[in-house]
Structure formats: structure tokens, C-alpha cells
């Protein structure tokens, strides 16, 4: 099979919690189901493997449907502003699973596995870690966001140059929170965000050079993620004059968490794990 999901990504971590006990438990159960799929890939007997895959896909479809319903009720209850867009992502995920189920009997085992793992990686792991994380950030009071914001040792990718650049990104971003009450707030924050934008481009260039030097196989995909982060930050800078202070801080916290913290945790750590596997 030419696609394999990283087992490390299917281990539940406390940093994935969104602060709602029911939803967090459901996410953990989804991770448990996903790990079953990973383990099926190790089976040798094709008939057994086929039966297990069908069982897992059915279980996943049923559980995902109930989970999405519960999650949407939560978003409605807290008046989550991005509910409409989040619902569209849920529909896309359900449709993808329906397609796998519909085509199941006409696909080779390798094709079924590939589609299932792509679903788990692109629409499942990333959805929980990135999109659902936004719900937590929306519910978190601004004072708590300010207090907890900053570099933490857990973000280390065990490369001194890249870690130092990550720390610098956090230091630049942290300055934006300190200038909120200043009379020249918009001007100063825009200046800080432009600095963050410029430094992020430099850091991404260094990181891409490093990946090229070590022949990292996912270099092109990683470059696309970098490009998306730069585009999102650029759009945010342009929207700044129209944002209320409290909305600005929430949106800034979300961007920083998702583009820095989660990118470091999910994508940059893959580079280190790949290097460790090669050595």
C-alpha cells in the first residue's frame, strides 16, 4: 500500500481536548476506532482483513453521525459563529464515508485501505485537531487566552534552530496581546503582525531548506501547508481595521494556536519522527 497513516497521530493527547467532557470522550472513541483500522493493516489473511475493514467502516459511519449531531448541538448552544461552515465540513466527511461504503464491494483491499486512511488523516485527525479546536478557543475567556499564550517545552521538535525560530514566532505574536489598550492599537498591532508575517516566511523558508537537505518525502505537502498559513495571516492583517478588540484577540488566538501550535505539534513533529525512523 502506498499510503500509511502515522500511528503516532492516532494516540489521544490531552492537548486535543476542547473542554467539553462529552465531546472529548466521543473524540477519544473515534481515535479508538481509527486505531482499529491501523491494526487491520497488519493482518495477513485477506478475507479476515476485508471483514474487519467493513466492520470498522460501518462502526465509524454510525458513530461519526451521532458525534456530529452532538457537536452541532454544542455549537448552537454556545452560539459558535462558524457553525455553518463547520456543518459543511461534517457533510463532506459523511459523504466521503458513504462513498467508501457504496464502492466497498468493487474495490481492492489496498484501495479500501487507502481511502479509509485518507479519510482518517485528512478529514478526521485534522478535523478534530484543527477545526474542533476552534470551538474550545471560542469558549475560552480572553484573560485565560492571554495567560496561557506562549512557547511551551512540549512544542519542541528537538531541533535547536527550528525550535529557536518557533520561540521567536511566539515572542513576536505575544507582543500583539500587550498593545490592545493603547490608543494607537490598530497601527501597532498591524506592525507586529507584519513582523510576524515576515518572520514566519523566513522561518518557513529555513524549515523547507532543512527538509530538502534531509530528503524529507512530504516536503511538497508541507510547503502547501506553509503557503496556506501565510495566506491566512495575510488575510487577517487586511481585516484588522474592521475587527472589534475582543473579536480581534479571539481571532488572533485561534490563528496562532492553529497555525503555530498545531502546525508544530502535527506537521513539524512528523519530520523528526521520520528522521528517527530512518536512523
TrEMBL record:
InterPro entries assigned to the protein according to its UniProt record, in alphabetical order: Haemerythrin_Fe_BS, Hemerythrin, Hemerythrin-like, Hemerythrin-like_sf, Hemerythrin_metal-bd
NCBIfam families: bact_hemeryth, hemeryth_dom
Cleaved signal peptide residues: none
Family per similarity comment: Belongs to the hemerythrin family.
UniProt organism field: Arcobacter roscoffensis
Protein name, UniProt field: Bacteriohemerythrin
Domain Hemerythrin-like intervals: 23-135, 161-273
Pfam families documented for this protein: Hemerythrin (PF01814)
UniProt entry keywords in alphabetical sequence: Iron, Metal-binding, Oxygen transport, Transport
Amino acid at each position: 500500500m502506498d499510503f500509511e497513516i502515522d500511528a503516532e497521530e492516532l494516540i489521544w493527547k490531552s492537548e486535543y481536548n476542547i473542554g467539553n467532557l462529552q465531546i472529548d470522550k466521543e473524540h477519544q472513541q473515534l481515535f479508538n476506532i481509527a486505531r482499529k483500522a491501523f491494526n487491520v493493516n497488519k493482518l495477513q489473511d485477506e478475507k479476515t482483513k476485508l471483514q474487519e475493514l467493513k466492520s470498522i467502516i460501518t462502526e465509524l459511519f454510525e458513530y461519526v453521525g451521532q458525534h456530529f449531531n452532538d457537536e452541532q448541538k454544542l455549537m448552537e448552544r454556545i452560539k459558535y459563529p462558524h457553525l455553518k461552515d463547520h456543518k459543511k465540513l461534517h457533510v463532506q466527511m459523511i459523504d466521503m464515508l458513504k462513498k467508501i461504503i457504496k464502492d466497498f464491494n468493487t474495490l481492492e483491499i489496498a484501495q479500501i485501505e487507502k481511502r479509509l486512511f485518507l479519510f482518517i488523516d485528512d478529514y478526521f485527525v485534522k478535523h478534530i485537531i484543527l477545526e474542533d479546536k476552534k470551538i474550545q478557543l471560542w469558549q475560552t475567556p480572553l484573560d485565560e487566552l492571554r495567560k496561557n499564550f506562549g512557547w511551551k517545552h512540549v512544542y519542541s521538535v528537538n531541533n535547536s534552530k527550528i525550535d529557536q525560530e518557533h520561540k521567536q514566532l511566539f515572542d513576536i505574536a505575544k507582543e500583539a496581546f500587550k498593545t490592545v489598550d493603547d490608543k494607537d492599537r490598530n497601527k501597532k498591532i498591524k506592525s507586529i503582525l507584519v513582523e510576524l508575517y515576515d518572520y514566519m516566511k523566513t522561518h518557513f523558508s529555513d524549515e523547507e531548506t532543512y527538509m530538502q537537505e534531509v530528503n524529507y518525502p512530504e516536503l511538497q505537502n508541507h510547503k502547501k501547508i506553509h503557503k496556506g498559513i501565510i495566506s491566512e495571516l495575510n488575510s487577517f492583517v487586511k481585516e484588522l481595521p474592521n475587527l472589534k478588540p475582543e473579536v480581534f484577540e479571539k481571532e488572533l488566538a485561534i490563528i496562532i494556536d492553529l497555525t503555530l501550535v498545531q502546525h508544530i505539534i502535527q506537521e513539524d513533529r512528523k519530520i523528526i519522527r521520520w528522521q528517527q525512523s530512518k536512523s
